[in-house]
């Protein structure tokens, strides 16, 4: 606006251009724009007109909602729109409609029977208070791999995709792996036991011998999922002999209700960051990182249990965000 004020005061365009170290044509264009529009701000230009009509954009979004796993290219081929646009135009139309391509959540398949059982179980245990849940010992098994198969992000320069130190090396079945059994309690205490890669009922009972003696007493309820070695007649008889109070009606396909699953994700991440080079380091790092988990993290997981039950009930027995 200082340039405009100088010109309004009667100074020549050449004098103003020298004063502000600008070319004279730039000063002239600025003055002409001010006289034409009343300001010197750049107005938004409409750009090239879109080739898709509003109706065609709505049609693409509707087709995408019907078949959400179709790629933009497949959607473009199967749609009824005139093939006058590129696949990128279709992608832009879908993004504008709020349909962005994302990684799909992976959840266990739920049959109708599973859904009914999950909803009924959550309703039955909704009356539990914080003290009741703190007395429940949550347990589960987890496989730790020396070379993980999960995706990893890397920051690199352009053209260095295959540089050796920037490649995520893989091995069939993740290379060497170990199976661990863990259990947690509401006061933050926890136990981690190394167990055979494949568990049968007798081996599982040996693991329980090592783990339960450190955590379980007569005031606790023990939770385990519905794996075959957990629900076998010999395992149930073993728990009865040990006088372990069992949460026997655990719903099927319900990892979102088992709070120890969150700790497995944390443990895998921490162990991977330390890059174990052999089987001994894999177990050593797992034990160290397990013991380093803050007690507050376990307390927060126990506090989330009522929210999980409400979320499953709200979703009519289907998966929740946890």
Number of strands: 5
The name of the CATH architecture of the largest domain is: 2-Layer Sandwich
Bulk shape: elongated
Order of helices and strands: HHHHHHHHEEEHEHHEHHHH
Largest sheet: 5 strands, mixed
> Can you count the helices?
15
**Fraction in helix:** 40-55%
CATH class descriptor name of the largest domain: Alpha Beta
Sheet with the most strands: spatial strand order: 3-2-1-4-5
Task: Indicate the multimeric state.
Answer: single chain
Q: What is the rounded distance between the termini? A: 56 Å
Query: Could you name the ranges where pLDDT drops below 50 across 5 or more consecutive residues?
Result: none
Number of domains: 3
Work out the strand percent.
Answer: 5-15%
Polypeptide structure, described:
The chain is of the alpha/beta class and 322 residues long. It contains 15 helices and five strands. It has a five-stranded mixed β-sheet, sandwiched between helices. The protein is elongated. 19% of the residues are buried.
